[in-house]
Design goal:
The structure is a single chain. By secondary structure, the protein is of the alpha/beta class. It is built from 7 helices and 8 strands; from the N terminus they run E-H-E-H-E-H-E-H-E-E-H-E-H-E-H. Strand 2, helix 2 and strand 3 form a beta-alpha-beta unit.
Length: 183
Amino acid sequence: MKDIKIIAPVKKPEDISEFSKFTTCRDFYVYYTKFLGGNFDYVHEFVENAKKSNSRLYINFKHDILEEDLPEIKKFLKYLKTVDIHGIFINSFAVLEAIKVFKLPFRVIIDSYDFMNSFHEIDGIIITEEIYLKNIVKIKKFTNLPLAIDSDNLPWCAEDIIKLKAIDNVIIINSAKRLRLFF
C-alpha cells in the first residue's frame, strides 16, 4: 500500500524547517493572503525553506476571495509562475477563471468535484471529510485523479481512510501550533 501524504499548514517560512526536523511531513501550504499588499517576494523565503528540507510547498487559495483583491491575486498567480512551488489549492470560480489564461508550471488541485468540468488541467481533487467514505471510492474510480481530504479531526477517520486506499493526501486544517501536538 502506498503512503498517504500529510499536507500541513505553515505560517512562517521557518515552520517548514522546524516540522521537517521532527516529522516525516514534507508537504506544506501557506495561505495566499500572506503575500498580498506588495509582499509577493516573501514567497521566496517559504520556497527556500522547502528546498532546504526537501519539501513541497503549495499556496492555498481556499479562502473567500474578495472582488477587490482579484486584480492583485491575478498578478500574484502570474508571479507564481516564476517561483518554484509545487502547486496551488483552489475553491473559487474567480481564481479558476483567472488561471485559465496562464500555462502554469505547477499542480492545480481543486476543492470541489463540481469544478471538474470547468477546468481541464486539474491535477487532483480535495474533498471534504464529511462526504460519506463509501462515496470517496466511487469518486476515485470515476475520476482517476489523486484525491485529498481536508480534515481538522484526522483521528476519527484515519483508520477508514487507510482501509479505503482511495485517498492520496490528507490536508490538515488545524493551526500550526496544534499540528505540533499531532506529530
